[in-house]
Design goal:
The protein has 15 helices and 22 strands. By secondary structure, it is α/β, with parallel strands linked by helices. Keywords: Hydrolase, Protease, Serine protease, Signal.
């Protein structure tokens, strides 16, 4: 009997080693770092450099590309399939057997391996994968006949921005999705193509510029941003320019899609993109060992959330669908859980919560979704150029993303976090948020007025924490909202690792940061009824 058991154990071990695994392989360094930072046009476009200067965003080592010689050696390694790379994380995403992947540690430039199967890193419960698309089958004022899109735009008062001539002109939006078939010939996008506002495309699966992909989901979502059919349909930012990125492979659910998503964010940042819409979310994978647990969705753990937070630090605004799980999973999907983005839930045509919309809060107690837009009965353009209606937070997200773009167009020197916070604080139930509705339905008339009239700042400070100075060298001061006397502040580095946690009071409101190295951190300040997150630059 002992021999039989031993043989079984040996077989299981050998079988496990023979299985194909997915992993991120992290590198120890990069080449030409200082030269690249001193000469940013060697690694970024002029548009990207201009945006960073406008918003006072630092150019740092994360902007420097991954060393291609390292990537080449990984590609040529025995038994390894290469899928993606990330300059922000300085890593590549690969597949192979455990022995083949572990052999990469013998390369002098490989620092670490992070397995998609979390059991290989630490114990992790698993689940069953589900299809993420199951539920979604100038000088004069502008006046549009919005047609079928009227309700979804007027609900959030995006039409108010259009009347003020803010239609996305001069702004750049990136869209990550599963594919954009017949985009160039679709009549709803002819104004984009004919006016040279389709700036570029890339498919991270095929590594080509052909983004036809699988299914028409990307066409539907993008139509809610820039779609235009006279007297039939108008998107929320019809005159914006676009980059289209395919980051999904339809036949399966695999964490490499998170790697492609982050790679798309990096490319968007280097191209000068202002706003990113992502109508995708990740939680369950075909291999249940790769599935994210509830505890993973704390805004700083998953690869997608980590990348989203860096994109926020780089000055972009990310708008992301909250997910279509209702209360089935207990929180939003990733990257919607990330601290540095706007997660958008769905309401129906009357502005009431749509039951399929994923609810919050996040694992660490933050309000998610951030805001709501129409996602039940949303008007969209199909692949053949006809108007139809669909359900899902996949559509509330781009509706919101286009409006955010127009708002930012009205004050382009505003910081990304200022725009995001104003969108939250002018939503319908900001003072009484709920797990279902977050801060409520967005209101871009109020957001515009708040952005251009500083009176709202006093009201905001009365109800929220603030931190100063920022950038900070040694001592960070925390301003307390009215009627709050005690709080806890936690700082995370760019990889989502907690580096400091301490208690503060209204009278003892200073935190010493001199022991922390220079860099960018996320500070979360929590009291009983109030929670705020801030990007902190440590000098």
């Amino acid at each position: 009997m002992k021999k039989v058991v031993l043989l079984v154990l040996v077989f299981v071990f050998q079988f496990g080693n023979a299985q194909i695994q997915d992993a991120w392989v992290f590198f120890a360094d990069k080449e030409n770092v200082q030269f690249s930072i001193d000469n940013p046009l060697t690694i970024l476009t002029q548009e990207a450099v201009d945006r960073k200067l406008l918003h006072e965003v630092l150019i740092d080592e994360r902007d420097v590309p991954v060393t291609e010689a390292y990537v080449t050696q990984i590609k040529n390694a025995s038994g390894i399939t290469y899928w993606a790379k990330s300059k922000w994380m300085n890593c590549v995403y690969v597949q192979g057997t455990m022995p083949d992947i572990e052999a990469l540690l013998n390369l002098s430039f490989v620092a670490d391996i992070e397995w998609a199967d979390k059991d290989l890193n630490f114990p992790n419960p698993v689940g069953t994968a589900q299809d993420k698309f199951t539920i979604e089958n100038q000088t004069s004022r502008i006046e549009y006949n919005y047609g079928a899109a009227a309700n979804q735009i007027e609900m959030i008062e995006g039409d108010y921005l259009h009347e003020l001539d803010f239609t996305g002109e001069g702004m750049i939006i990136g869209v990550t999705d599963s594919g954009f078939p017949n985009f160039a010939t679709n009549p709803a996008f002819s104004h984009v193509v004919n006016n040279n506002r389709l700036l570029g495309t890339f498919d991270f699966f095929s590594r080509t510029t052909n983004v036809e992909g699988t299914g028409q989901h990307g066409v539907n979502t993008t139509s809610d941003i820039v779609g235009f059919l006279e007297n039939q349909f108008v998107g929320t930012a019809p005159n914006a320019s676009l980059y289209l990125f395919r980051t999904e492979y339809g036949p399966d659910e695999n964490p490499r899609e998170e790697a492609w998503y982050v790679e798309a964010l990096e490319r968007a940042d280097s191209l000068g993109v202002d706003v990113i819409n992502t109508s995708l979310g990740y939680q369950e994978y075909d291999n249940p060992n790769y599935t994210h647990t509830y505890e993973d969705l704390n805004g700083v753990t998953t690869f997608a959330a980590r990348g989203a937070n860096i994109a926020f630090e780089k000055g972009m605004i990310l708008v992301t669908s909250a997910g279509n799980a209702g209360n089935g999973f207990g929180t939003v999907a990733t990257p919607a859980d990330a601290i540095g983005l706007l997660a958008v839930g769905a309401v129906n045509a009357a502005g009431n919560y749509a039951s399929f919309s994923s609810r919050g809060p996040t694992v660490d107690g933050r309000i998610k979704p951030d805001v709501m837009a129409q996602g039940q009965g949303s008007a969209v353009i199909r692949e053949n150029g006809t108007v139809d209606f669909s359900n899902g937070t996949s559509f509330s997200s781009p509706i919101l993303a286009g409006a955010v773009t127009c708002l930012w167009q009205s004050k382009p020197d505003a910081k990304n976090y200022e725009i995001m916070q104003i969108v939250r604080e002018t939503a319908s139930i900001y003072n009484n948020p709920t797990d279902e509705m977050g801060y409520g339905v967005a209101n871009f008339r109020d957001a515009y007025n708040a952005l251009h009239n500083l009176g709202i700042e006093d009201q905001f400070l009365n109800n929220n924490f603030a931190v100063y100075p920022n950038p900070v060298k040694d001592i960070l001061n925390i301003s307390f909202p009215q009627n709050v006397t005690n709080a806890e502040i936690t700082l995370y580095n760019i990889l989502g690792k907690e580096v400091m946690r301490t208690q503060v009071t209204a009278s003892g409101n200073q935190v010493m940061l001199s022991s922390l190295p220079q860099g960018i951190y996320i500070a979360t300040v929590i009291a009983e009824e109030t929670k705020n997150s801030f990007k902190i630059i440590k000098q």
